[in-house]
Amino acid sequence: GKWIDIHRLRGITKTKDEKTQRLLSVVAYFLSQEAKSYQRKWHVLRTLRKLDPDVQSEMLFQTKQGKPYPQAKNNSAIFHNYGFLRDEFSLRKMSKSVSVVAKSNIRFLLRALFSIGSRSECILYLLTHEAGHPAEVANAIGISVRGAQDALIELAESGLVFTRIKGKRMMEYWLSQERWWKFLFGINFEEIKKPIWLDWVSLFSALINVWKILNEIEKSKSDYMRSSKLRESMETINLEFKKSQLVLPPIPSRDISPAKYEEEFQNFIIKVLGARSGTSR
Fold it and tell me: Using CA atoms, how far apart are residues 198 and 220, in angstroms rounded to an integer?
């Protein structure tokens, strides 16, 4: 809980659907009960969205056949209040503190150095990109353009983040990656295997859309109706995956017959989930 940016998370979640907001709210409520030292922090999210009285509760986990998994013996009252059915559970208290100094946790290292907020997010973006203008940075890190612009202007005043004009007088910001990486990890730039930027917001949005459309077509027995809905969703899903900066396989052709489209859709998703940034397999 210590290193999570609650206000950034809240801003991102406000753009998502009602179900996603309820799920985040119930997790935040649970954490506020368990992590007493961060109770006030998580309280910001627990009130984001509660269950509409007219909405029926749904199973949080289920099998392919739509049955509860695992079979609930005692439903969690906390999750039920937010519209989800799952078995009561308790934490095993076996988790360890996050390793802030690991390169894979560079975001947490920057938050420890600059505090949680827009500055650490802007630095992370510039460390993994050649440069960026405020709107581009804001969209990638999930904050407002004004917030990103203010943070970048203040960072530039330090003399360690630079500005330059690109294109039609568009101001972009950049930094000396060699100097920064050496400062952060104390080794030569050539020896550092830099983390690759992934737009997790877009990636998870795409996966949510995949899950949503698969649930929608589950009860349809018509190949034509199933393939038609998959085709309609493919454009949105592909756009979100592209924004994540994964290298993607070609999307299924619209010329594929309805009987074959569902199989090609599945093959596309399998390839995406097996892909790594910079490669496709």
Answer: 35
Q: Which tokens belong to 57?
A: 């509760």
- Using DSSP bridges, classify how beta strands 84-85 and 162-166 pair: parallel, antiparallel or unpaired: unpaired
59-68 contacts, C-beta under 8 A, 24 or more apart? 59/84, 59/85, 59/86, 60/84, 60/85, 60/86, 61/86, 66/218
Give the predicted TM-score (pTM) of the model.
0.81
Contacts of 200 (CB under 8 A, 6+ apart): 244
Tokens representing 56 are 């029926």
Question: What is the rounded CA–CA span in Å between residue 130 and residue 175?
Answer: 8
Which tens digit of pLDDT belongs to each residue from 199-249?
888 888 888 888 888 888 877 778 788 888 888 888 888 888 888 877 778
Which residue's entry shows tokens 């493919």? 234
Q: What confidence score (pLDDT) does residue 54 get? A: 67
User: Tokens 């952060």 belong to which residue?
Assistant: 184
| Residue 167 · residue 134 · CB < 8 Å | no
Amino acid at residue number 213: I
User: How many CA atoms does the CB half-sphere of 5 hold within 13 Å?
Assistant: 22
Q: Which of 26, 10, 12 shows the shortest CA–CA distance to 202?
A: 12
The Cα angle at residue 210 between residues 22 and 271, in degrees rounded to 5: 140
Q: Is 120 exposed, middle or buried (0-12, 13-18, 19+ CB in 10 A)?
A: buried
